[in-house]
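Kindly inspect the following:
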Amino acid sequence: MSQSMYNNSVPVFIHVLKSLSAILEKAEASATTRNIDPSVLINGRLAPDMFPLSRQIQNASDMVKGGGARLASVDNPKFEDTESTFEELQARIAKTIAFLETLTAAQIDGSEDKHIKIQAGPSEFEFKGLQYLNHWVFPNLYFHVATAYNILRHNGVALGKRDFLSGGSSL
């Protein structure tokens, strides 16, 4: 029995974004409690040549909305990358989830062998749908969410593995 491309993509994307949203809520609360300017966390990075927290959130959002759009053969919504507050980052996550919730199993199921071509910087990549999901979308999504989590942990936000895995609910 084959697995559903929809069930293996959109619900997972939403779960991870809800975890990311919950992590940002804890970060904002931590900044308030510790009397830290929120921009310190939002602009925080692990290394000088890495993107800051805000860009990690934007990249995670872009990865799943683009992934869902390509698998469903619909237009990928364009979001401006201007978020600079926790409120704006939360709004971006909410917009991304709202877009993903418009996608249906009928649009995505059967896309395992769909030809997908993407441009990433100067490089072009070609995939079949299942390969694209498993070898491009998921690794990039988890990289950016884990990096956001690590930036916040590095800056003293009390987070644990449960926060990363929870999907915004208590485990």
